[in-house]
Amino acid sequence: MRDIVAFHPTARGHAVYSVSGRADLVERRPEVLGGGVVFSARPVKPKQRICLELRRRRHNAPADDVEGDVPGSARLGFTRHDPATLAKNLPPFAVPDLTDRDGVWARAVNSISVGGRLTVWLEDNGSARWNVDGIDRGILVDGLPVDVPLWLLVDLYGPVTSAKLIPPGTVHAFCDCVLYVNLH
Questions:
Q1: What single-letter DSSP state applies at residue 66?
Q2: 123-143 burial by CB neighbour count: b if 16+ within 10 A, else e?
Q3: Contact at 8 Å (CB) between 48 and 178?
Q4: Is 109 within 8 Å of 74 (Cβ atoms)?
Q5: pLDDT > 70: percent of the chain
Q6: Beta carbons of 37 and 153 less than 8 angstroms apart
Q7: Cα–Cα distance for residue pair 61/127, rounded to 1 Å
Q8: Which of 35, 152, 15, 12 is nearest to 84 (CA)?
């Protein structure tokens, strides 16, 4: 059986919604700056590569109308807290609102071209690494506990208004994903 992962159905910021009930795509209302925090529905396994497309949409534009590069405003990281326990008291921003709490690690990610693929994974030594279109960006966050479950955290912040999980088998030279996405 395939290991299915998706975005968490209820633990998300007030400005985030799923697109047509899809578990692999979330959007933030572009007119709202905060409230864009989302999580994986289940913990991520060590070495499991998660591939994302981060996009931005012009205000009042159709969902498929995206523009240019995405400046380094999105935040990406992990938490040891089950997102369901955070859902009722989610602050508007991952950094510093969530990262000031024990058990949450995140940082801003730099420019990613529209359609570019960001891949993140956990190493056995407690670091999370990342790359963009196959170009290694090094350590995303370090000092993660290796003996507890960790959920992916994405903050759709600033110009970033959507995140799409890219399933394995997608033709893309740089997306080495072993993440299976529930597409119902």
A1: B
A2: eeeebbbbbbeeeeeeebbee
A3: yes
A4: yes
A5: 76
A6: yes
A7: 38
A8: 12
With bands split at pLDDT 50, 70 and 90, how would you rate the model's confidence at 161? confident
Q: How far is CA 24 from the centre of its chain?
A: 11
Tens digit of pLDDT for each residue in 96-129?
999 999 999 999 987 677 667 899 999 999 999 9
pTM: 0.84
CATH ID of 4-181, from 2.60.120.920, 3.50.50.60, 2.130.10.10, 3.40.50.300: 2.60.120.920
- Domain ranges for the chain, please list them: 4-181
**What CA–CA distance (Å, rounded) separates 86 from 12?**
9
| Cβ(68)–Cβ(54) below 8 Å | no
Q: Each residue of 123-135: pLDDT tens digit?
A: 999 999 999 888 9
How far apart are alpha carbons 40 and 153 in whole angstroms?
7
